[in-house]
Amino acid sequence: MEKRKTFSYSRYGYLFSIPFVVAFLIFWLYPILYTAIIGFTDLKGISATKFHFLSEPFKNFKTVLTSSSFRTALRNTVVIWIINFIPQIVFALLFTAWFTSPRCKIRGQGFFKIVFYMPNIMTAATVAVLFQALFAYPTSPMNDLLTKFGIIASPFNFEVSKTSAKLIVAFIQFWMWYGYTMIILISGVLGINPEIFEAAEIDGCTSAQTFFRITIPCLRTILLYTTITAMIGGLNMYDIPRLYLNGGPDNATLTTNVYIYNQAFAGSYLYNRAAAASMIMLIIIAVCSIAVFQMYKEKDQSKVDRKRRHLAAKKEVTE
Fold first, then answer.
1. Alpha-carbon dihedral angle through residues 273, 277, 283, 286, given to the nearest 10 degrees
2. What is the pTM (predicted TM-score) of this model?
3. CATH number of 67-318: 1.10.10.10, 1.10.3720.10, 3.40.50.150, 1.20.1530.20?
4. Which among 112, 113, 92, 236 is positioned nearest to 178, based on CA atoms?
5. End-to-end CA separation in angstroms for the chain
6. What does the DSSP 8-state code read for residue 27?
7. Which of 40, 170, 247, 257 could share a disulfide with 84, CB 3.0–4.6 Å?
8. Tens of pLDDT, residues 281-305
9. By three-state DSSP, how is residue 53 classified?
């Protein structure tokens, strides 16, 4: 009996993947490898195209790590990220509980979701101009409001104070990203089996008990994703600190990406040091991401071990 020829569509899958592979090689892999290479060279200068490998390969890395500006930038980056991430995740969880609770029949949920998510789709330049106008000195809506309610006696220059500058940048980052985090968490909640919530309601669980005992544990994978992505985005913070105050005042909002930009393009043209700083940040981000992933993994494993011990003890009692 003659075998029928089967038509395979698998080769079309490879054809459709070619544009992505080409774009990845040109715009992602090549720049990463080139950056890693020039970190070990003497490449600098606005029109420099030739470079030589240094006799001391890690000289640029040592220079960056011992630089007070880089250490200040790294410290600012971590502090600003922590200040904006904690309220970001808290508000996102609160709004998630609000929108997904079957007991809270909220009208116009779509409108509220759009309003909360809208800052995320605004360009960084637009947001920077907006907050420059809100906190301008001596006349601005914020100064007028604080003066009217007697909180301050005279207009306050927010852009000169280091503390206020950090807090404003952190608030902008929180304001721009909490809506995105909220949408991700809501999607995760909608993926949970509704029968679990129905069973909890039948058993008499309150809204708080349902949220903390059922919703949060079921969102562990989503929370891991949001934590890692928020950490990567926070450590790569660039647009708002650069466009709003350009790292000022007195390097109070200088982040690592702004430092890298200044080394490479803001008059210095030290491409080798900028590349070295980039690779240092890549290593820091990778280590932190692995640490967060392992932390979540160890907690899950400890819960599994406790459950196994409980079942084993229960089995011994029954026997």
1. -140
2. 0.85
3. 1.10.3720.10
4. 92
5. 62
6. I
7. 170
8. 999 999 999 998 888 777 666 665 5
9. strand
